[in-house]
């Protein structure tokens, strides 16, 4: 894939994912796997993209008054240290993409099921503290190992259990992605290879896409549309990850 085509593709990925509070890690991983990046380069590069896009989304959702500290911080208490640990671990190249693909496939089908029914405001309840701790720790470890941020796995859990509505879930996911991606990148720093020389240009591209997508998600997309879009992104990324590993 030519450099400009790859840059355009990651910008589109950033826009689509940030509209639903995601940083786009799974999309970047799938694209870089398709292009032929080495697995040890894919992970830190995807995490760098995640940090930028998630930070932009957090600012956008905060300004839209959708971020709640009480809803966010329990997931990060164990999510951060376990993501740091996961960032220092490396899956063999032969298992990296199929493992991530299967996880995304399961999350995508769960999100597709959840998109058929909506929980009204009266049915929502804040996440129990202990459940949020456990959820954040497990997803933090998985996100650190895979380099996909973690919000893509957290969002289906929150929506299925009725812990937040769709827009609030997007805001929580963006915050979780930012914290975990930063921790995972710190964990991977010691063993990180030289990053691609084009990384600054790619960051500008994903940043532009992230700004557009987070604006749409915070202000304009309907909740059902956001759920269906997230389900489609999960399933498409899963199929691409599994297909490129065969």
UniProtKB/TrEMBL annotation:
Membrane-spanning segments: 45-62, 71-89, 133-159, 199-218, 225-243
Gene Ontology cellular-component annotations: plasma membrane
Compartments where found: Cell membrane; Membrane
Similarity remark: Belongs to the 4-toluene sulfonate uptake permease (TSUP) (TC 2.A.102) family.
UniProt entry keywords in alphabetical sequence: Cell membrane, Membrane, Transmembrane, Transmembrane helix
KW Cell membrane (keyword) present: yes
Designated name of the protein: Probable membrane transporter protein
Membrane topology: Multi-pass membrane protein
Pfam families xref list: TauE
Main localization, broad class: membrane
Signal peptide residue numbers: none
InterPro entries: TM_pro_TauE-like, TSUP/Inactive_protease-like
Organism of derivation: Methylobacterium symbioticum
